[in-house]
Amino acid sequence: MLSKLLPVILLILGTAGGIGAGIMLMPAPEEEHAAEPGSAAKPAEEAAEEIAEDSEENQREYIKINNQFVVPVVERDQLTSLVVVSLSLEAKQGIGEKVRTLEPKLRDVFLQVLFDHANMGGFRGAFTRSDVLEPLRTALREAAQKHIGKGVYDVLIMEISRQDV
User: Which helix (H) or strand (E) holds 2?
Assistant: First the structure.
């Protein structure tokens, strides 16, 4: 008799335990802030800012610049190394076609910025330090914005390497 009741008793205990655990782990209900008139507007403003940031992020695209940039590093009229850089643009959604159309001009401008950086010694020593790369990033971004427009938010350095010769 007990062997027939044991599964039923275990089933009832298991169900009751599951319901009890669900009630204990249930998240607390959100409290309404009706008592404070200014407090309800504050979370709404934060939510609106978060939605605006999300929608702005969704309106960006990343455009890879075809082919790498090869920059010679010359010291005392001698080629000492070659730096290879791959770049991408962070831009407003829909600007990709304009970038593709102006890519030859953009490559020329980027190469000039990279040559200037190399001539100032930017690729010597620990050239990947952030304080060394930041002026390069800024110069590349400003050059892109000058030729493409304010739709370019940033120039991303995807790969960078130096080969000493």
Answer: helix 2-25
Beta bridge partners of 64: 88
CA 151 to chain centre: 16
69: Cα separation from own chain's centroid: 22
Domain encompassing residue 156: 61-164
- 33 in a structural domain: no
Give the per-residue pLDDT at 123. 93
In a domain, 32, yes or no: no
pTM above 0.70, yes or no: no
Residue-wise pLDDT for 80-136, tens only, equals 999 999 999 999 999 999 999 999 999 999 999 999 999 999 999 899 999 999 999
Cα 125 to Cα 82: distance, rounded to the nearest angstrom: 13
d(CA 110, CA 141): 9
Matching residue, tokens 């959100």: 30
Query: In angstroms, rounded to a whole number, what is the distance separating the alpha carbons of residues 9 and 60?
Result: 59
**How far apart are the C-alpha atoms of 114 and 120, rounded to whole Å?**
10
Tens-digit pLDDT profile for residues 19-64 = 877 777 777 766 555 455 555 555 666 666 666 555 556 789 999 9
CA distance 84 to 158: 11
pLDDT at 137 over 90: yes
